[in-house]
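Table S2 (continued). Query chain:
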Amino acid sequence: MEYRAGGAVAKAVNGVNLVINKGEALGIVGESGAGKTTTALSIMNLLPDRVSFVTDGDIFFHGESIFKKSDREMEHIRGKSISMVFANPLSSLNPLFTVGHQIAMGIMKHEGLGKREAAERTAQLLETVGIARYRLDDYPHQFSGGMRQRVGIAAALACNPELLLCDEPTTALDVTIQAQILELMKKLQKEFSTSLVMITHNLGIVAELCQQVAVMYGGEIVEYGTVEEVFTNPRHWYTYGLVHAIPNLTGPREELQAIPGLVANAKNLPQGCKFHPRCSHCTEKCKTEAPAMTKITESHQAACWVMED
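Corresponding output:
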């Protein structure tokens, strides 16, 4: 998937291959600019018009191509079968309508309920996410950041979607509110058996919520496997760097190992392995040939020429 503007081309997502099963929670991690949000917007078919171009590949939902769906067909899928919780709830909520009205509109459209029934369902949803029903008639600006995120989650879950995409849902929230939101999402996923894609740069969130994890760099998946396999035995040096940049709260004090350099520029991606300019284990082969995914176990794979335990 490419973004094209002003004569420049940014190769945002390149050859990403993911499978999300029913009831499964998948984490997608990586630095800003890795292609995580673009991947989620592609699944929703919400890529910006005129500047985004799908040059190859496809996304299938229940065996049918998302990209071949008409706008009308996608309107029935979004909110009903696939929902998304955005990073900034204030920008995703309409400031001109009450939160109750915004959630109820989706319920009436997809579930065919009347105003009274939709209002009652909305009140129940708000209570489920920890918001009193009397706040149905409040506007987004009257809520705190954590409460607005809860409203966004309630709106996303209004029609019991099969797939829930969460794009940095705890960004800019304090740690106490983060913990509340994560506990809420664990509870709701279990209650509704919803498949979950958690997009974040916080490995702790993935360890808490997800069974599978995909590590993205330069628009590609560089490592994929179960959370336990990837975090305890990282086989790509980028994953190793992410894991070892987290402070150890229980073991002996030691200096954190920061990853040198900046994330790869999508407008000028390096040849070979996209991570090689920042990798201290880089070889000449890494600079010229892009590594393919190598199976380590049945559920763990990585794309690296210089793998070590």
